[in-house]
Amino acid sequence: MSTYKSRNEVPDHEKWDLTDLYANVQEWQKDMDESYSLADKLIQYDGAIKDGSSLLSFLKTQEELSFILRKAFAYTMFLTDIDTRDSHAQKLSAKTTQLGVKVSESTAFFMPFLLSLDEETLRDFISQEKELEYFEDELWKSFRFKDHVLTKEKEELLSQLGESFQAPSDTFNMLNNADIQFGYITNEDGERVQLTRGMYSKLIEDEDREKRQEAYKAYYKPYVELNNTIATALSAEVKTNATLAKVRKYESALQKALFADNIEQTVYDQLIQSAKTNIEPLHEYARLRKDKLGVDELRQYDLNAPIVPGVKAEIPYEEAYETMLEALQPLGDDYIELLKEFKEKRFIDVRETPAKRSGAYNMGVYGVHPFVLLNHHDDLNSLFTLVHEMGHAFIVITQANTSHKLQQVTVFLSLK
Fold first, then answer.
1. Is the per-residue pLDDT at 407 higher than 70?
2. pLDDT tens string 375-396
3. How many CB atoms are closer than 10 A to CB 39?
4. What superfamily would CATH give domain 17-149?
5. For residue 17, what is the enclosing H or E element?
6. What is the mean pLDDT of residues 125-137?
7. Domain boundaries, the chain
8. Mapping DSSP to helix (H, G, I), strand (E, B) and coil, where does residue 363 land?
9. Catalytic residue at 389?
10. Residues with Cβ < 8 Å from 349, sequence gap 6 or more?
């Protein structure tokens, strides 16, 4: 596995090309300035939407702003994620967060206004302007939220508190990605070295149980030491969710979380119950693993150990990509060519480097292309993750010529 002490050591072809978003920070700032101008323009619609024409004008301005804001947000998010310790990136990210609060304040009046209309008035507005048909479905769906939208003044207040509500999550993310310091392990040369996430992913699959145990303890050492801080951040997040649910008159934070996607709580409950009801095969697998490994007690650090001795799947990134292309060939040449393009055009940020955000994700930026973050460790799990994220990215790229609204897929549906 390739190990990098600095992002500068990573080959360019394995790093994002963020100039696809902005050539430089100055270009990003131009979009930020434009966003503030549009936000000020949106405020002027408060009390001024009297007919279909003014409604259409507001919605088109709001959508224009959302395109620019998402692009600007993505740029600072990516800069922060590739190095969570970068103070310059943090500063830019804070600016986009402040802009997001400004935009929320500028549009806080709209939902209370929309839900104050009777259905006949809204139908009349839509009939006046053909272009409103593009927004019609979203407008009618908004009426589902009628019981949970507050007065204009209260909506404005919640918008102003948006940055504060994000604090618990921001605190943990900074702790988990920028400040975390793992314990030390003994390497193959007998030297004591500090553990990294990449090293852990390898050692936890080692045949030597003592090495696995040592790596496990070193990995979770900082989390144990910081358990009070982490618990406090979690408690604050739970209280924030519960409070917002109560303020918006939901029965629970769970109901609030499911409501936007129009998912009944019974569906959620059935998923949980189904997992519990059918968990015995997992228990049986654990018993078989314990027997195969010959251990008295199966511990957490035994769950990834190879059951078959002598098997170590070292799969370099280039090989992993070719394996994926070969496996997906039945989907057709067009599909394969698009996947090749993702790699050639640097849509993927591949390697783990110090302070890079952990895990993996795909984020599509409307009008640009998908951006995929990986922490590839040249192993089988990394291959699986690569294929998974490429599936999400492929959906984004194939929707490039469709309406922005049709590209919005909920997490619940994307996991089906």
1. no
2. 999 999 999 999 999 999 998 8
3. 21
4. Oligopeptidase f, N-terminal domain (1.20.140.70)
5. none
6. 96
7. 17-149, 173-302, 317-414
8. strand
9. yes
10. 14, 15, 16, 78, 82, 371, 372, 373, 374
